[in-house]
Design brief:
The chain starts with 31 loop residues before the first strand and ends with a strand. It is built from 26 helices and 33 strands. α9 packs parallel to α17, α15 packs across α24 and α22 packs across α24. The chain has a seven-stranded mixed beta sheet, with helices on both faces. Strands 6-7-5-8-9-4-10 form a seven-stranded parallel beta sheet, with helices on both faces. Helices cover 32% and strands 23% of the residues. By secondary structure, the chain is α/β, with parallel strands linked by helices.
Length: 849
């Protein structure tokens, strides 16, 4: 196989190293015990020395743009609150934990006091134990009730895998407690014969928000005894509940609270989060309750050496002759190879399933050139594997039989692996919270750790490796979610009314947007008001109105043409870009080509193939302003936020060579346009500003288009989104603003909170955008600054220098960030069309990225 990597036989002579968990340094709890000495340093080499050897190969030293050294930190112990049952403390000690970390004890005390609490500390800091100890103690108290179930607890995980892992941990920890704690997983995979037993006798039920939404809440009479005794709701990995999915989960939790109140229960919410900005604010928005914050991480940490790594330029040329860098996939595969050769246990995180498989294959090929026995010591670890396959991989890595894994970063949550020697991150994972979560997988016994971030060839990654302060000197992002999104709220009001008639007393629970939405739902004959309550009027299940992880619409079934076998489904909103005719589709390690897409029957027929390329869809977009909620003068220009209607059409797809990213060709598509009503931020400039920036009509379109592309690429640094969650349009003369305008919009019906975040951080966001373009080494634009992989206009026109001058002039009139926040008002009038938006025509003339 011909891959873009170093010549055969080139490997760095590395010495094995051992490393320790990564967390953030914070103040200690009140009940601190200072008698625990720091861990003894080990005999393995310092992580800085290991990095030096990694960079010793040909031209490698120049690829390291920055090295950050985080000093070690000793752990701080405390004592469990006296109210914790001694049997539980004994069970924890039997598991080898003599004393809790200070943050664990503090969180347990809040839980026992009846305060909802969020524990926001680093990876491997013991968040699970912080909520498990008070929960187990309370369940033990409840076991003395006449029915043996005077207290229950509900655990929510974003993935089935994490719930299954946690269930095993709970059973192991609670084994000395006998039958007082009866833990069980209740999800779509639970056999029907077990479900009734769980409803009647389970005390600690582990599930996910999807099952709570579709299975438990609509059937609440069958869960009445469980809900009546519900004392705690545990929301694990709560930082993952962001955007549209997080907004749905927020409404599911409000429906849960409403039903609990109906049965006389008022559960305390215990949330666990990766280190995050304002975790209590995000937790309050998620649950609708006041939440106490515990972010004082008292767990120990060894030294962390964190390197930023930029792959070199190649001789290949991209679109418009732009220079192309070596791919992060190929570069990360080489680093994984070098680490494995020296017997180091490591994991490489990559954003896609295909990327995980490719890195594994490249590393195996490279290792076979050195020693054939090493090739079997590297594997891929991703979604689609059976639980027993995942467990086998985890055991093999723990035992040392397996030295390296290439894993999708979606599995950072359910991954039961820590204490690795090194972590390689192939491409910025989208948020600083996720970055630190992944880096935290490296570490063992208080010794040094190595993490390497390998930049992809895009504006954000390039900016970060040349501006390390954006990673290391900034707090992690705020979690963005918008429970008041009318497209999210409307189906949950219907679901709530189907569970119990909805009264006016319930409305404050669901937020101020209810008053505007309820008449629309009545007009759509989804709800009917009788006396003092609204009732669900349909025969079908109200919970089926929305998929909390998708955008609605009938999922497209992916069917193998030769056998008729159903391989899986794709969200309706993603079908045009992922399973169009000619698309490469991945499923459980196998590659398929889409033969046809039938939109009427929602079926994509595929056949197995082995293409040497991947596919990327391209689309065009037009946008119209429906309502401007907030408007701020930026000199003569304006910064605006409001509701828009976006008309989008997938027009073609590119074929790119797998490893190099080289464009092999473009194929036209004939797909219908789709209309989306959503939220957007946009800015305008005047003719005087264009004159000041020396932007003439010939380059205006290219300057706006380049600024739009780069701003989309940079927004994930300021909002917890992926660049594929957002879209943009630039227009030299927009019919609604009558000025040159750049729009950036949420790619979800009703919005996802990303454009709102962009509006509130516009000065910093657009300053970073200008800096990213100006600091790029290319002459006329490249994927690292202004070219977009999804541009429907083929990245034409683009004008790099014009974009820098335009943004400079725009920012000259920008107010301070504080005044932007003060001026920003809450959403007004955004509910129009939530019960069923009209599909209307498009406007032309725009450049879209």
């Amino acid at each position: 196989m011909a891959f873009n990597h170093l010549p055969a036989g080139v490997h760095d002579a590395l010495v094995p190293l051992s490393v320790t968990p990564v967390t953030d340094s914070v103040p200690m709890a009140n009940n601190h015990r200072p008698d625990r000495p720091p861990a003894e340093p080990g005999s393995r080499p310092e992580p800085g020395a290991v990095l030096h050897r990694l960079a010793a190969g040909p031209s490698r030293a120049a690829r390291i743009t920055h090295t950050e050294h985080l000093p070690p930190r000793a752990g701080r112990h405390a004592v469990w609150p006296e109210r914790i049952r001694p049997e539980v403390v004994a069970a924890v000690r039997a598991a080898g934990i003599e004393h809790p970390w200070a943050h664990q004890a503090r969180a347990a005390e809040h839980a026992l006091d009846g305060d909802s609490v969020v524990v926001a500390t680093g990876t491997a800091s013991g968040k699970s134990l912080a909520y498990l100890v008070p929960v187990l103690s309370t369940l033990l108290d409840g076991s003395q009730a006449p029915n043996g179930r005077g207290a229950t607890a509900l655990y929510l995980a974003p993935t089935k895998a994490l719930a299954a892992d946690q269930c095993r941990s709970v059973k192991e920890l609670s084994q000395p407690l006998g039958t007082s704690v009866r833990a069980a997983v209740y999800d779509g995979d639970t056999p029907f014969e077990e479900r009734e037993w769980i409803r009647q006798y389970g005390t600690y039920v582990l599930t996910n928000p999807d099952m709570l939404h579709r299975g438990i809440l609509p059937s609440h009479p069958r869960w009445s005894s469980f809900l009546k005794a519900l004392k705690y709701v545990v929301v694990d990995e709560c930082h993952t509940y962001r955007g549209v999915f997080g907004s749905h989960v927020a409404q599911v939790l409000r429906r849960l609270r409403r039903l609990c109140a109906r049965y006389g229960a008022s559960p305390v919410f215990l949330l666990a989060s990766a280190t995050a900005a304002e975790p209590a604010v995000a937790a309050r928005r998620l649950t609708g309750l006041p939440v106490v914050e515990v972010a004082d991480d008292a767990s120990p940490r060894g030294e962390l050496v964190f390197a930023l790594w930029e792959p070199p330029l190649t001789e290949l040329e991209g679109e418009k002759g732009a220079p192309v860098r070596r791919t992060a996939t190929a570069e990360a595969a080489d680093l994984l190879t070098d680490l494995t050769v020296q017997g180091m246990r490591s994991i490489t995180f990559v954003r896609s399933r295909r990327g995980a498989e490719l890195i594994s294959v490249i590393a195996q090929e490279r290792l076979a050139e050195v020693d054939r026995s090493l090739a079997g010591r590297v594997a891929a670890y991703r979604g689609g594997y059976l639980p027993e396959e995942r467990r086998a991989l985890e055991r093999a890595l723990h035992s040392g039989e397996l030295l390296g894994l290439a894993a999708t970063n979606a599995l950072e949550l359910g991954l039961d692996i820590s204490g690795l020697d090194a972590v390689v991150i192939a491409g910025y994972p989208g948020t600083r919270a996720s970055l630190w979560q992944q880096a935290g997988r490296a570490g063992r016994s208080g010794q040094g750790a190595l993490a390497v971030l390998v930049a992809r060839d895009d504006p954000l990654d390039t900016f970060l490796v040349h501006h390390p302060e954006a990673l290391f000197d900034q707090p992690v992002e705020s979690t963005v979610l918008d429970p008041d999104n009318p497209y999210v709220l409307a189906p949950h009001l219907c679901a709530a009314a189907a569970e119990l008639p909805l009264t006016e007393e319930d409305l404050p629970l669901f937020g101020p947007a209810c008053e505007e939405l309820l008449p629309q739902l009545e007009a759509a004959k989804l709800l009917r008001r009788r006396t003092r309550a609204w009732h669900w009027t349909r025969r079908e299940r109200a919970a089926d109105l929305t998929d909390i992880r998708g955008e609605g619409g009938r999922p497209v079934q992916v069917v193998e043409a030769g056998t008729g076998r159903l391989l899986g489904t794709v969200d309706a909103g993603a079908a045009h870009t992922t399973v169009h005719e000619g698309a490469v589709h991945l499923h459980q390690g196998r590659t398929y080509l889409v033969r046809s897409l039938d939109l009427e029957d929602s079926v994509a027929l595929v056949e197995q193939a082995t293409p040497t390329y991947s596919t990327v869809a391209r689309d065009t977009t037009a946008i119209s302003v429906l309502e401007t909620d907030t408007e701020i003068p930026w000199g003569d220009g304006r910064l605006c936020y409001g509701s828009v209607e976006v008309t989008n059409q997938v027009v073609s797809f590119l074929r790119r060579r797998l490893i190099t990213g080289e464009v092999l060709g473009e194929t036209k598509l004939d797909l219908p346009p789709r209309t989306l009503r959503t939220r957007a931020v946009w800015w305008t400039v005047t003719e005087d500003q264009l004159d000041a920036a020396r932007i003439n009509p010939e380059i205006l379109g290219g300057a706006l288009h380049a600024a739009e592309h780069a701003s989309i690429g940079m927004l994930p640094l300021f909002a917890t989104c992926d660049r594929w969650d957002i879209g943009g349009v630039s227009v030299p003369l927009h019919p609604d603003t009558l000025l040159p305008t750049v729009f950036v919009y949420d790619g979800h019906p009703g919005g996802a909170g990303f454009a709102e975040r962009a509006f509130h951080t516009a000065r910093a966001w657009l300053t970073a955008t200008r800096e990213a373009i100006a600091s790029c080494e290319c002459d006329a634009g490249c994927p690292s600054c202004i070219q977009s992989p999804k541009c429907g206009n083929g990245n034409d026109p683009l004008h790099k220098r014009g974009a820098v001058r335009l943004l400079t002039e725009l920012l000259r009139g920008a107010p301070r960030e504080d005044s932007e926040r003060d001026s920003a008002e809450g959403r007004e009038g955004s509910g129009a069309g939530a019960a069923g938006a009209a599909q209307e025509g498009s406007r032309g003339g725009a450049q879209r990225g």
